[in-house]
Amino acid sequence: MSSQTKTFLTPEEYLLIERKAEYKNEYFNGEIFAMVGANREHNVIALNIARKLGDQLENRPCEAYISDMRVRIPATGLYTYPDVVVVCGEPKFDDDHLDTLTNPTVLIEILSPTTESYDRGRKSSHYRTVESLAEYLLVSQDEYRVEQYSKQPDGRWLLTDIRSLDGVINLASIECVLKLKDAYAKVVLH
User: Which residues, 6 or more positions from 118, have their beta carbon under 8 angstroms from its beta carbon?
Assistant: First the structure.
């Protein structure tokens, strides 16, 4: 009977591997976790949201990134790839590669059957530790639904749950509006 020993990597070792990797991987507590590919609906929704926010941020000191911008959660050490990221003010990066953001203002995850429980649970818990984070959205791809979590002045998180295609999300932290009908454009839910 043989036992396998796990190899734990430092964040620096992870980044060395990740920057050469063909596919994206998350990193936490010395371990690398392969990310699952996204389906058509997931990609269309993410691009719709990034485009609508990007248009509104065009002449402002904010930047929107889509799924390839890695984010490091400073308090917990998680390295992850949110579906859409917005940073306002000066973006702060882990190093001179400028590929690992540490101060997101808004994070957006498109929920999928394989990642929904993680996105709602453990990942959400990591996100809530980010000092710069003001809002994050969980966007369903199975129903017209966006859950908006907004940090309150006392540090509590307030949930706004929008479940109508006529609904509108007000992202106060970046002074943007996201209509659900725009987020779900060209997406037919079954």
Answer: none
